[in-house]
Every structure is written in C-alpha cells, then in structure tokens.
C-alpha cells in the first residue's frame, strides 16, 4: 500500500504512535521519560514535574451502563497510577470531555463527582477543563492531563542484570470490577522512591506478559520469572494473572543490596512478591504463549 | 424540564461548564486563576506554573480541507496565547488526538509537523500524547494541554477603576486567515509583566465585545471605550473589529502611573493602542449591540 493513502485503521494505534513520534526531536532539554509512564521535567530546585495524558472511552475502557462516578474515578486513577509508577504524586489535572449532545447533564455531573472524590483522597484538584460535542450516539471520551511531582523519579530504564523483580498486590481478574475500583499505589511508590529506590519501575496496565518485556527492553536487560510464584487473585489461572491487564499494580526491579531493607521495612498491607529477576539479554527467558500456557488449567 | 432528563444539547456549553464547575471546591490550596486564561500554581521557589487545556475540532475551529500543518499550529498557538495572556511562556504540551479510522496517516503527520514547528519557535516541546478512535466520518478533535511558567502571572481580576485599557495589534477579520496564522503575543506579554505590569490581562479569543466585559467582571469594574479608536484591519467596520473573534491579541488594563513607561519603552513593532479605561461599576458604559452598531457601515 502506498504510504500516502494509509489510514489510521490500516496501521493501528501502535504503529500510528510510532509514526507520529518520528516527527519529534529525539530529546528535549530538561525532559526525560518520554515513552515512560510519565514525562519528567527537571526543575532548577532539584525536584521534578511529572506530566501525563491518558484518555478513556465508553465501550473500550468501560461498558455502557457503568456507574458514572466510577467512570470519572477510573479516568483520574489511571493517571494517578502513572504518577505512582514514577514514585511521585498527582497534584493537578486538566479535563477534556467529549460527548454526544444527548448525554444527560446528570451523568456528566456524576462523572465529575467521581473525579472530585478521588482527587480529594489524593490531595489533588481539577484546575481546568474543556468540553466538546461529538456526533449523536458517539461514545463518551474523557481525556485527563495530570501534573504531579517526584523528588527522585524512577524510570523504566535503570534496571540492571541480577536486579530482583517484585510486584505489589495480586494480579488478574480485573474485569470483575478491579478495573474500576483499583487503588493506585501512590503511597507505596513514594515510599519505595525514598526508602528502597527501585532501579526501574512501571505500573501494570496491559498485563505482566506485555509490561515486563517493556521494562526489560527500556533497561536493555533480559528477564526470568517463575510464573507459579505470581500473586494471583483467588481461583485465577496463571494465564489470567499474566494477561488480564488493568492490574494497576507496581512492577519494579531492585538492586540485590536493597532487598533486605525492602522486605524488612515494607510498611503496607499491600502484598509484595518476588517474582524473578532481570538478566543479561543473553540469559533472558522471554515469555512465549507456551511459556506459561501449561499453567492455564492448573 | 425536570433536571434529571436535561441533556447537553438542552443546556448548551456555557451552562454545562457552570454546572460541572459547581461540583468543584471553590478554591484549591496554592491555585489561582481557575476560569482565567490559565490556572496558576504557586511554587515554593516563588515562580508559578501555568496549566491550560484547549481543544479544536474540525468544522468548528477550522474548515475541512485546511492545511493540516496549520491545524496543528493553531491548536498549539491557542494555548500559547493563553500563556501569553498571563505574561508567561509555554514550555511543554500533552496531545490528545481523536479521529475517525479513515483519517490518513499523512494528514496526522502533517498536523504533528505543524505543532512541532510552532513549538520549536517557542522553545517548547511535546512530552506525551494519546490517540483515540472516533466513529467513521467523525470530525477530528485535537486537545492540547499546556504547561508553562510565569515569574509574575497577570490575572484578569486585578483591574481598578481608572486603569487605562490597551490592545495589541489590529482587531477583526480573523477568518481571512489570521485565525490560523496568528502570532501569540508571548514576548509582548512577558515584557509587560516585567516592565509595565498590567493590573489585568487576557487574550482576545471571542472578540472585544464579549471579552472586555469578562475582564471587567473579573475585576469588579465597569468600562468605557471609544469604539472609533479601535485598531482595525484595513477596510473593516468597527462591528467586525468588536465581534469577529479569534484576534489572539492582548487586552490589558494598566495603572495610569505606568502608561508613560509603557508608551516610551514599548520595544515591539506590534501596534499598541489605548482604547479606553476601566471605571467604577456605576460609571460603566456597557456594550449593547446598538452601542457600536451605528459604526457598522462607516
């Protein structure tokens, strides 16, 4: 197909993003973390500002009929989870709301209430918004831009061979409701950044099977995990725990010299599980479907 | 109509925004300027971060067939103009792009090129983005969240009776192309903030006839202007200069004690025109359609 007539549908979202990114300069002064969970802007006072945009859409990220408060909550909590993945906090958001003309005012008010309640828990606030009208019948679109901060932001790219891999919480089964009610690991991320700084960290949004290879790639390492050790929600197969997505748990790599500090001082009820380690690229045991498939029926 | 069944179409954008805003706390610690051109976040080091989101949509903010580079440029330049209106700079943006599946990749690449070229002129950069698919045939939607900074941000709300009103540039006729190619008054706004700080400032996006009353209302003042003194593009009536919108010029109020400094030291080729003054609310001469209508055919 000639490139001049290729459409978005032809190339798909991942290739589109790669294509658009190719327009941009490979680096910007004072900015790191592009392509990471958040962009990191270094400030003169030694702190960092975190910036992130994320959108959710009816029919893709939630089903029609979902409690509108949970829609608003989810949209903001996803961005908060990205801030947590850097060891930072969410402080302010900007909201873009696009919906069809027949959308009920009371539904939008409930979405805003859900956002506001969650923001209040975070100590964050809405500081601006934009509303736009879509065609009749169009699914609602809610895009959240978040601004936050981190003292020592943790990127995905600092992992080293032999670092130990951990995850928080339990994986899998998000469609049972967790994808709407998850608690972003903000306090856990900040505690880690301060007390046992991971060499690399991210939040699990697409499932460990997709996300761990991304962390390893960013760190230019390989990885080995023990799938049977994955912390799973009750009655879930390893396959689900690896691939369900929308866990919004933290995945991080820690220098072996810090594991004792971490495990002795972890102050949270949130479970913490060693799942494996980073390796050299040569020693990697990459995931393949068959790599954990035999656990599916276990 | 019972409020429980009111739709977005029933109440319109302005009332919807008012309704959604009613959910939010009336103030947030460290934040001013909500409802102003930008939100202003006060930092411990004495500087301020500016945040703003703004969206443009095909068929509303530009016609189908517009050069995609100019679409990208306009989306970003509108946000830059809001930063200018605070006396600040635009530093980083996040992009939400929503389009139909049949949108051509090359069109989106051109939109990004237009954004990137303008950002390079500003010394700013794209640090994140999100793409979303709309229904086939849906008009393209481009939402830009901007982050910037100001040493001494100028709000709309500081105007005093007897302050002198100025505008930059020439007003009206934006549909001749200015609405796509305007130059946000970033350097002018920063110079003003430093050398002759306005008591109140905003950018003209909806036309002076709508925007000046907003500035006066925020400052709890009235206003009097001399419509025949408005700087107009050639061959334009006063009516057009007052109402065309999309001027993206600065409107500001200045203490009479600073007017000499301003007029003697203004270092730009950009025209600068006294158009009137703020007054007490009692002495205001509010705009009415007939207030300048008789100039329409002049």
From the 3D coordinates, which CATH architecture of the largest domain in chain A would you assign?
A: Alpha-Beta Complex
The arrangement of helices and strands of chain A along the chain is HEEEHEHEEEHHEHEHEHEH
Strand order, main sheet of chain A: write it out.
1-2-3-6-4-5
Please bin the fraction of helical residues of chain A.
Answer: 25-40%
Largest interface: A-B, 69 and 69 residues
**Subunit organisation of the chains:** homodimer
Low-confidence stretches of chain A: 293-298
Structural class of chain A, please?
A: alpha+beta
Summarize the structure.
Two copies of one chain form a homodimer. Chain A has 298 residues and is an alpha+beta fold.
Give the arrangement of secondary structure elements.
Two copies of one chain form a homodimer.
Chain A: H1 8-21, E1 31-32, E2 39-42, E3 48-57, H2 68-84, E4 89-99, H3 105-122, E5 125-133, E6 141-150, E7 164-168, H4 178-181, H5 186-195, E8 200-203, H6 208-219, E9 222-225, H7 238-243, E10 250-254, H8 259-265, E11 272-279, H9 289-293
Parallel strand pairs in A: 4-5
Antiparallel strand pairs in A: 1-2, 2-3, 3-6, 4-6, 7-10, 7-11, 8-10, 9-11
Helix pairs in contact in A: 2-3, 2-5
């Amino acid at each position: 197909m000639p490139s001049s007539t290729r459409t978005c549908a032809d190339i798909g979202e991942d290739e589109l993003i790669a294509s658009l990114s190719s327009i941009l300069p490979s680096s910007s002064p004072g900015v790191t973390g592009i392509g990471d969970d958040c962009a990191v802007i270094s400030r003169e006072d030694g702190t960092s500002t975190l910036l992130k945009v994320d959108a959710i859409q009816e029919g893709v990220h939630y089903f029609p009929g979902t409690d509108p408060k949970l829609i608003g909550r989810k949209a903001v909590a996803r961005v908060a989870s990205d801030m947590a993945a850097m060891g930072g906090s969410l402080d302010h958001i900007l909201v873009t709301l696009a919906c069809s003309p027949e959308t009920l005012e009371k539904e939008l008010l409930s979405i805003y209430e859900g956002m506001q309640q969650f923001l209040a828990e975070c100590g964050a606030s809405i500081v601006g918004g934009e509303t736009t009208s879509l065609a009749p019948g169009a699914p609602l679109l809610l895009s959240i831009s978040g601004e936050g901060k981190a003292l020592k932001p943790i990127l995905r790219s600092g992992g080293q061979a032999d670092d130990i891999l951990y995850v928080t919480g339990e994986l899998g089964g998000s469609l049972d409701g967790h994808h709407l009610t998850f608690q972003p690991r903000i306090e856990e991320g900040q505690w880690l950044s301060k007390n046992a700084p991971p060499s690399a960290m991210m939040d699990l949004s697409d499932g460990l099977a997709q996300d761990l290879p991304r962390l390893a790639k960013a760190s230019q390492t390989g990885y080995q995990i023990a799938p049977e050790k994955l912390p799973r929600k009750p009655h879930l197969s390893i396959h689900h725990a690896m691939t369900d997505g929308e866990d919004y748990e933290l995945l991080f790599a820690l220098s072996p010299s810090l594991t004792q500090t971490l495990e002795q001082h972890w102050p949270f009820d949130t479970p913490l599980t060693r799942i494996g380690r980073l390796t050299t690229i040569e020693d990697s045991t990459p995931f393949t479907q068959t790599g954990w498939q035999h656990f599916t029926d276990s």
